[in-house]
From TrEMBL:
Protein name as catalogued: CN hydrolase domain-containing protein
Source species of the chain: Emiliania huxleyi (strain CCMP1516)
PROSITE patterns named among the record's database cross-references: CN_HYDROLASE
Ranges for domain CN hydrolase: 7-265
Matching InterPro entries: C-N_Hydrolase (IPR003010), C-N_Hydrolase_sf (IPR036526)
Length: 293
């Protein structure tokens, strides 16, 4: 990672089942997808990224498997891979990769909480491998409640520190829920609490480009999205698409992976991030400023 980098790398077009010729064939083994995520973190760091954003947890666990939750804010999952609750290799693996590559990670995992309920949780890990923020999905798609058996969290809308600024966290269905329900309290709360951009981790089957544009226009915030099986996408506060500065291929990064995943990189203007949300929104309105490599 470059010192003080404000470049965000976003996983794009990952197919979690695109494995062949190994124990990973079919993608049911989450360990295989973790290897690809670790490779993405390494390649993102080598490309100068300061943080890497990943899709919703089904991109790691396409078989819907869960692991014990060990990543509350302040935790160091890399040092606590084994707990009294059992092994949590995805959380510890992501934290170790962040620490090893000195790059922040924003990832999503399917977990079991202390009381046994299953949740879908976003975790923000800093470049030292420590959890700086976590958030559980509040608004579930109906099939996530039944038959998958996930429970909504009671977490408040969460704004997390990242790349010297503050980002609001949204998980999949939560990006379209306000339009469908008329309830904008979550995204309005993110803006009220100082979010300078929205990070949207998506499973699949959502209109990423159109949804991101509508979110941006409604909130006046830029939106950056990583979706399972779809292209990473970023829009300015006006809803206008922002082209990435570059793309880094991941095909062949891990033995047996035959998908077309890549990282797409967007340079975030560091000075406006530090100055505040109003400056951030103004700069992100002007797309050409974000296309230089």
């Amino acid at each position: 990672m470059e010192p003080g980098s404000s470049v965000l790398a976003i996983l794009s077009n990952h197919d979690p089942r695109a494995w062949t010729g190994s124990a990973c064939d079919g993608g049911a083994n989450a360990t295989c997808n973790l290897r690809l995520f670790e490779a993405a973190i390494a390649r993102g760091a080598a490309a100068g990224a300061g943080a890497v954003l990943f899709p919703e947890g089904y991109a790691l666990s396409p078989d819907f498997g869960t692991e014990p939750w060990i990543s509350p804010a302040g935790a160091t999952p890399c040092a606590a891979a084994r707990t009294t609750q059992g092994d949590s290799p995805l959380q510890s693996g992501l934290a170790c990769a962040a620490r090893r590559q000195r790059v922040a990670v924003v990832a999503n995992v399917l977990v079991r909480m202390g009381g046994g309920e299953k949740q879908i949780r976003e975790v923000v890990i800093d470049a030292a491998g420590a959890v700086v923020s976590s958030y559980g999905k509040r608004h579930l798609f109906p099939s996530e409640r039944w038959p998958l058996g996930f429970s909504p969290s009671s977490d408040a809308p969460t704004v997390a520190p990242l790349l010297g600024g503050r980002v609001g966290l949204l998980i999949c269905y939560e990006g379209v829920y306000p339009e469908l329900s008329g309830d904008w309290s979550q995204v309005d709360g993110l803006r009220r609490d100082g979010a300078q951009a929205l990070l949207w981790s998506i499973g699949s089957h959502l209109p990423v480009d159109a949804g991101a544009a509508r979110l941006a226009r409604r909130t006046g915030l830029p939106v950056l999205a990583s979706a399972d099986g779809a292209a990473a996408h970023a829009v300015a506060a006006t809803g206008a698409p922002l082209p990435p500065s570059r793309s880094v291929a991941l095909r062949g990064a891990v033995a047996g992976y035959v998908g077309n995943a890549s990282l797409r990189l967007w340079p975030l203007p560091a000075a406006p991030l530090r100055r505040g949300a109003q400056d951030m929104r103004r700069v992100w309105t002007r797309a050409p400023e974000l296309t230089a490599s």
